[in-house]
Design a protein that fits this description.
heterotrimer, A alpha+beta, B alpha+beta, C alpha+beta, A: Gyrase A, domain 2, 6-stranded antiparallel β-sheet, 10 strands, about 20% helix, B: alpha+beta, 7-stranded mixed β-sheet, 53 strands
């Protein structure tokens, strides 16, 4: 029975797409994405989340009132997820979305101009500094957008739309290639 | 005599000639030309025929308001009709063709319409083509459309790409003339985020043809220096070839950027046009002013042109309008032109000024005829003479060009797009923008400010005022030193002119002339909105940019009131026409909407699936195998295989929602009509969700995975809607409940494994005991797979009526698990099946989908009456379900239907009639909601909603397809065709 | 072309990100009687001027909002989270 080999198929097999002017689109590792649902009307849980996540390679992203995403490049083991889940109790529930969300890194000096073809959010660094997240429409697809560096964004999307969004991002970048 | 290119002067690049053609005739222009300036440089004054009377027409303006010079440019799939030659930049190889003429521009049969003109006046559509009514569609309308056409669009697909983009700024400046440049410089230097848009190919506006000296530079050099400074500022975006076409809610401006409309072969990596939505904290309109024509006989003859346009052709493009030019003016604009023509060495035959005297400071050589008007022009296809009325006598003067200067109308369209009305200013003889607009100001000629120095000063001051409102500090900049002729305030407008002979045009593009306006007033259509529609004045593609104010002035005179009393018609976007391509953006063809793929998409593809679009999803519909020639062969095989062996179907597209919280059970109890409070952990239950009006909204199974943790599935079609609905219930209706929702549709790949051998296959990979005793029908729990390598959610539920399970695994492992299952199931005959077989299987079992849950059915209609909780205090739909009409005995209710002749068939949507009853609405008994060929029964079967259906089992009826007049004798039967006692479910 | 709604959680966003449900009405109690329910389910005002509606920030924070807007001027006024609005109503 145990001789079956289970393999992971990433949603985006596509190779990174480098462009000139420093623009690149890269599928990020399908590590972990944990959706955190805070208890309604609970106080701000950011401190709890920071304690629960601890390690530096993980990141907490705001996702609307009382909700967050905890993301990272490495998969979480069942035990790690359980531990995280426990640490959040009773304030919040952890939902594993590691397979349900796909992260794409878009990077470059004119990255805001490229993303402005899809989103109405003002991505000027003054209005949207590093660490800011927004859930928004990018073209016709809903995404969760985070500025992870001054010239780099993480675009998180439902797995089923990942390929379609990838094609959109490539099209949006053609002008700069 | 005709127009021609001067030896020197202008901003055109004389070292860069461009070849182009007009009506097949090769011509030469220069880099920096518009098509219009190039045509004039080639002496081509006749460029089109008018809309209704097919009168010869020439170039009237040098900008966006052009009503006459509409041509078709490009070829084949890049054919673009109705292009204004006055804004189209010339490029090498441009092909232009005149419009609305046959067989040729010079000899046009349609010009006979001119002879019919007594019958073509205002309202002629309504009067002439009144009856007989049936002829309207077949004869009159096609005839009118052909005769009065614009250019013809191509039927070929647009080969070019378009896109949209958002932009954000503190200050948007519309128009890069003197006021706009000054405003952008002031705000840019203060560090504000500025966007400056201008419709022209280079910034400058009127500076590009003005002869003023600014800080010792020519006006155009000043514009170039100012734009260079703006372009060097990282906080400023200067966008040329960009028309701001609309002002929308939230201070958002729509603008279209013509990225490559000036290129013969557009580069493929760039769109040809880009639609911008600009979110501006504040905006400044510096859109300038439009010169008004004068309404005299033959004012449309080629060679007659706006005075400021003539100046633009002369000073910016180095093109002379003719060898002997007259100027008809009622203000000082005509004298500025006279001075420039004189300086260029072009003869000015006469300045005809309607005012009693010429301006006191005027010292030019040309003859000034004061207190005079031009009452008509003469000539064939271009003007050859004018008739001037002065001192009670008429004088004919030979000319080959005539400029007209009727005063200036500020361009205030954008300011009026959000409902505010402009107001008439007697002092300025113009309609001015509404006052006290929120977050929008006006500067320069658009605010009726006169003179370059004043415009620069005002642009700068308005920008400073805006900055202070935004809390951005700015130092007042030193204003440039402008040497220009002093300009006087606008003169009294000259609406009607005495002694007119022939047609005097008000709206050039729609061929509305003076008498039409009078007729409208006489016939009771004197209200500005009625006059517009009765005469069609202002209704052409130029939207009356030149004509509206004249029409209002003439209406006012005819009614003996002030233009203030007439008012304007409503200004609406778009300021100038915007292509459908730009409005569509990148989302056309395959990219019209996003594609959503199941995590098992590639697995299905490698198993040969044929896909079908369901909403955004691509679902596997069936899996053809060797030798199968039709889809039915494949589907029948898949169905039989599930009933006999086992099949695997991708059901990942079902909506999946995780529901957590202390009150999760209570929440479900309120959103479903059946009870959920006591659902035990480890169990799934079929749930029926109603709308508040009592009709069924959606169905699905919900499993309790923990005390405060449920896993809901929805139908594929309503997944998004149900999530929105649940969020509404949780947030807006019952925020006091502790319930938390997460969409998990994409996290889990879900497979249905159905058929008598399903357990045999699954036992090979599921580690847990899944015997019927340990894992009975409607069991639900987490299981481990392949020796603990993976954990999955496992449900014993069945849509097919067979022993069946659904296995949910994390999406990234879906393909691997499906492969493993296929491998493990090979010895048991496991085959994939698609949505078609899924449909047949559920119809055989009498299971409903949204074909039956079509918004008209309540639970009882589908036989679910007993499911509805009688004890719950409240749930969505509870109260309205009690309505009388929903308890009526003759409601349409679910039954099965099958043809009496097993070889006969019927289609979904067919109606049910009583035997021998005529096919009338009164006799209608209901309709077939689903139908399929059932391999199990051996004939077509259907589900139907029929009046009192369950009471009529065994009744012979007729299934009638009204579209094809087909009648199939049939019998009503139990909707469950397979295993009505559910023995197979429980094996 | 555009309308911006000021989501209290996300800031100004275009209307494409939202789904509109309609007038904000208080859901009657189950025993409120037939008339109250008919009004709630079917009867709608068509106000000229201020209008309170439920808007869902579907492609944003996924919160339901109570948006107050003017049907004449299109001015979007106060935007409030629907849960907060409801709770404020319950305990005034």
């Amino acid at each position: 029975m145990s001789d079956f080999r289970i393999t992971l198929r990433p949603a985006l097999g596509s190779a990174p797409r480098p462009g000139s002017r420093g623009l690149s689109i890269t599928a990020m590792p399908e590590g972990h994405v944990v959706q955190v649902l805070g208890r309604p009307h609970a106080p701000d849980l950011f401190g709890v989340l920071e304690r629960a996540t601890g390690a530096a390679h993980r990141s907490v992203r705001a996702a609307g009132p009382g909700q967050w995403f905890i993301v990272g490049d490495a998969p979480l083991s069942r035990d790690e997820f359980a531990a995280l889940s426990t640490a959040l109790q009773p304030h919040a529930t952890a939902v594993d979305q590691s397979h349900g969300r796909v992260r794409i890194r878009v990077e470059g000096t004119i990255v805001e101009r490229m993303l402005a073809k899809g989103t109405a959010v003002d991505l000027d660094p003054g209005a949207f500094p590093v660490g800011t997240s927004a859930m928004t429409l990018l073209g016709h697809v809903s995404v969760h957008l985070t500025r992870i560096e001054i010239a780099a964004f993480e675009v998180m999307v439902l797995r089923g739309f990942a390929e379609s969004l990838w094609e959109d991002l490539v099209r949006m970048s053609v002008e700069f290639a | 005599m005709t127009s021609y290119r001067l030896a020197t002067g202008g901003l055109v690049n004389r070292a860069a000639p461009l070849a182009f053609s007009f009506d097949g005739k090769p011509m030469a222009g220069l880099e920096g030309d518009t098509l219009a300036s190039a045509l004039l440089a080639n002496g081509q004054m006749l460029v089109g025929r008018s809309f209704k009377y097919h009168r010869p027409r020439g170039i009237l303006t040098a900008g966006a308001s052009e009503p006459n010079a509409l041509v078709t440019i490009g070829r084949r799939e890049r054919t673009e009709p109705n292009t204004r030659a006055t804004v189209q930049e010339l490029y090498e190889g441009l092909e232009a063709r005149s419009q609305n003429r046959w067989p040729s521009l010079d000899f046009d049969v349609g010009a006979l319409n001119g002879l019919l003109s007594p019958f073509l006046g205002a309202g002629f559509y309504y009067k002439t083509f009144m009856w007989p009514a049936p002829l309207w569609e077949k004869l009159y309308e096609p005839f009118i459309r052909r005769a009065a056409g614009l250019g013809k669009a191509t039927h070929e697909a647009d080969p070019d790409s378009y896109e949209k983009s958002w932009a954000h700024c503190d200050l948007l400046v519309v128009g890069a003339g003197p006021a706009g440049l000054a405003a952008a410089l002031t705000a840019g230097r203060a560090g504000a985020r500025v966007i400056l848009v201008d419709e022209g190919s280079m910034p400058g506006g009127s500076l590009l043809f003005d002869t003023a000296m600014i800080d010792g530079m020519t006006a155009s050099d000043f514009a170039r220096e100012a734009s260079a400074e703006l372009q060097s500022m990282p906080n400023v975006r200067l966008m040329t070839r960009t028309t701001a076409f609309g002002w929308y809610d939230g201070n958002v401006f729509g603008a279209v950027e013509r990225v490559q409309k000036h290129a013969c072969d557009p580069a493929s990596h760039l769109p040809v046009e880009r639609l911008w939505r600009i979110v501006a904290k504040q905006a400044l309109l510096a859109t300038g002013a439009e010169e008004r024509p004068l309404v005299f006989g033959g004012n449309d003859r080629p060679g007659v042109m706006m005075a400021s346009a003539m100046r633009a052709y002369l000073n910016r493009y180095g093109v002379a309008p003719g060898k002997a030019t007259a100027i008809f003016t009622c203000n000082d604009s005509g004298y500025r032109l006279a001075r420039d023509l004189e300086a260029a060495g072009i003869e000015v035959t006469a300045i005809v000024d309607s005012r009693p005297t010429a301006p006191p400071g005027y010292r030019g050589r040309p003859r000034v005829i004061a207190n005079a008007v031009v009452c008509q022009t003469k000539g064939n296809k271009s003007v050859s003479a004018i008739e001037v009325l002065h001192d009670g006598r008429s004088e004919t003067i030979a000319v080959d060009a005539l400029a007209m200067a009727g005063g200036f109308s500020p361009i205030i369209h954008l300011a009026c797009h959000r409902g505010s009305r402009p107001f008439w200013s007697e002092e300025n003889a113009a309609f001015l923008a509404p006052q006290d607009l929120k977050d929008l100001r006006i500067a320069g000629a658009a605010a009726a400010t006169v003179g370059i120095a004043a415009c620069i000063q005002e642009g700068s001051a308005q920008a400073a005022a805006i900055l202070s409102e935004l809390g951005i500090s700015c130092r007042p900049a030193a204003l440039p030193n402008v040497e220009a002729e002093e300009e006087s305030r606008p003169a009294k407008p000259l609406w009607s002119i005495p002694g007119i002979k022939g047609k005097a045009f008000v709206d050039f593009q729609n061929d509305v002339h003076l008498k039409d306006i009078g007729l409208a007033v006489r016939e009771g259509y004197g209200h500005v909105e009625l006059a517009k529609r009765y005469t069609t004045s202002g209704m052409a593609t130029d939207q009356g940019k030149l004509s509206n104010v004249n029409a209002i002035g003439l209406l006012a005179e005819a009614r003996g009131v002030s233009p203030a009393e007439i008012g304007t018609t409503t200004f609406r976007p778009f300021y100038t026409p915007v292509s459908f391509g730009a409005l569509t953006g990148a989302h056309s063809g395959y990219h019209f909407q996003p594609v959503r793929k199941s995590p098992l998409h590639d697995w299905a593809a490698k198993n040969g699936a044929i896909f079908v679009e369901t909403g955004l999803w691509y679902r596997s519909a069936w899996f053809p195998r060797g030798g199968e020639k039709t889809w039915r062969e494949s589907v029948d095989r898949e169905v039989v295989n599930v009933r006999q062996n086992v099949g695997l179907c991708d059901v990942s597209t079902l909506g999946k929602i995780e529901i957590f919280g202390a009150d999760a059970a209570e929440f479900l109890n309120r959103v479903y009509c059946n009870a959920f409070l006591k659902l035990p952990v480890g169990k799934a239950r079929y749930g029926l969700m109603l709308r508040e009006d009592g009709f069924i909204y959606d169905d699905g199974t919900t499993s309790r995975l923990g005390e405060g943790h449920f896993f809901m599935t929805t139908t594929t079609a309503y997944a998004a809607g149900v999530m929105n609905h649940l969020e509404f219930c949780a947030q807006a209706l019952w925020p006091e409940l502790d319930v938390r929702l997460a969409s998990a549709t994409d996290q889990w790949a879900q497979m249905a494994i159905a058929g008598p051998k399903a357990r045999l296959v699954l036992e090979k990979i599921v580690d847990d005991d899944i015997s019927s005793a340990a894992f009975p029908f409607l069991a639900a729990k987490e299981v481990s797979l392949c020796g603990g390598k993976l954990h999955a959610r496992f449900f014993r539920i069945s849509f097919s009526g067979e022993l069946a399970y659904e296995l949910a695994v994390p999406a990234g492992y879906a393909e691997s698990i499906a492969d493993i299952l296929m491998n493990a199931g090979a010895e048991h005959g496991l085959q994939p099946y698609g949505t078609e077989a899924l449909g047949v299987l559920r119809i055989e079992k009498g299971h409903v989908t949204h074909s039956e849950i079509n918004g008209t059915v309540i639970p009882d209609d589908l036989g679910f009456g007993k499911m509805v909780s009688a004890t719950k205090a409240d749930f969505i739909g509870k109260v309205m379900l009690e309505r009388e009409g929903l308890k009526a005995a003759d409601r349409l209710r679910l039954v099965g239907v099958r043809p009496l002749d097993p070889t006969a068939s019927f289609k979904t949507g067919s109606h049910i009639l009583e035997k021998n009853a005529a096919a009338t609405l009164e006799n209608d008994q209901g309709y077939v909601t689903s139908s399929a060929f059932s391999p199990h029964i051996g004939c077509t079967i259907g589900l139907a909603l029929v009046k009192r259906g369950p009471e009529r089992l065994g009744e012979e009826v007729v299934v009638w397809n009204g579209l094809k007049s087909e009648y199939a004798p049939a019998i009503l039967c139990d909707p469950i065709f397979v295993d009505p006692t559910n023995e197979r479910l429980h094996v | 072309m555009a309308s911006l709604i000021s989501c209290p959680h996300c800031g100004a966003r275009p209307k494409e990100e939202f789904t509109i449900k309609g007038a904000v009405l208080s859901r009657p109690a189950a025993d409120a009687g037939h008339q109250a329910w008919t009004d709630y389910v079917y009867l709608r005002d068509n106000p000229r001027g201020t209008h309170r509606e439920y808007w869902h920030h579907t492609s944003g924070c996924r919160r339901w909002l109570v948006v107050t807007r003017d049907t004449v001027s299109h001015e979007v006024g106060f935007c409030q989270d629907a849960a907060a609005a409801k709770l404020a109503e319950v305990r005034p």
